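Give me the 3D structure for Eukaryotic translation initiation factor 5.
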Amino acid sequence: MAGFVNIRRDVDDKFYRYRMPVLLTKIEGKGNGIKTVVPNMSDVARALSRPPTYPTKFFGSELGAQTTVDEKNDRYIVNGAHDATRLRELLDAFIDKFVLCGSCKNPETDLIITKNEMIVRDCKACGERTSVDMRHRLSTYILKNPPKKKGKKNKGGHAEAPSPSSEVNGVAASGENGDAEAEAGSEDEMMKRIKSEASELKAESQLADEGWSADTSPEAVKARIGAVAAGMGNLALTGGGEDESDEDADSPYTQLGNWVVDNSGASAVDVFKKVQELGIEKKHKAVRVLVQTLFTGEIIAEIPTYIAIFQKMVTSEKHQKSLLGGIERLAGLDHPELIASIPKILMEFYQADVLEEEVVLSWGTHVSKKFVDKETSKKVRKASEPFLKWLAEAEDDEEDAE
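Predicted structure for Eukaryotic translation initiation factor 5 (402 residues):
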């Protein structure tokens, strides 16, 4: 039987109110199919008042490993062999980032998503509301899979976990999501977040290597405009169900492409404002135009600066296919030197939860002339094989686990 430890393991007080089961692990399989099962993940998550999928996905993100979640059979798996000590350390990190109050460090919190898509920890002990790190990959997962409201049941038919205070003291925790929505700001708040994240990431990239910055000399800009103009003329070939009126020289997509090129180096928030101004923030074709015009031959260094835009705009399989189409055009036509970097490009978008493995695997096995000629399409997919192989092996491991 597993014992119990303080939720804050740095607290030695044996009378500490907030406790959780010791995280257990079990190694299964061998070779490429080896995996680590956490048999008591549900019990640990219940003590933290968080869905068990959150710490599981956190482990996968921190370890760079695929995860398998089977709520019906209560199985939570991280691919690879990971010892219990390492996972307990990562659990401590999860608790610090997504459970403990940022003010009083009390675990008696609920996660709330505001209207402007910020995640805050609502503390029942001190009343403070503190935000989590929105740049962490788990934050994106939480936005797409928000915590259930109190009293509702999860997919497995079990009621959601009570807060740590109610588990220890027997008193039901209060606090509804309604207050958070009252605090929700306007779209400008979301813009401020994008701008803040993008500026920080951009600054880090520039400090790491000055050579990564895009060439904005008049000659380079002129050459880029010429390349994009040639590509924009072919947008009509990739309408994908859009109105014919969207495909002429005055279409919002052409306007967006020209604006991005004319304003080379524009911030993420300015680009998104332009997309909104044109009323195409929900259109999949806008995603492709942004890929073709925002990025240059230094796309690997540029993605962090603009990734928040794609996390906001890519909301369906059709959007993902448009994104992949933009990558095909960018690497296959505008910057052939990027062909060898296709696996890295796909990995950047995949790790940011913009691309899903099912969509990428399907794309990789079907040569298409929708965005580029057949030969170029084959070349891009051939270059992506290392990434596709990695995804397929990870998927096979998950199927074996199920």
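The beta strands are 4-6, 19-21, 26-28, 35-37, 67-70, 75-79, 109-113, 119-123, 129-131. Let me know if you want a second pass.
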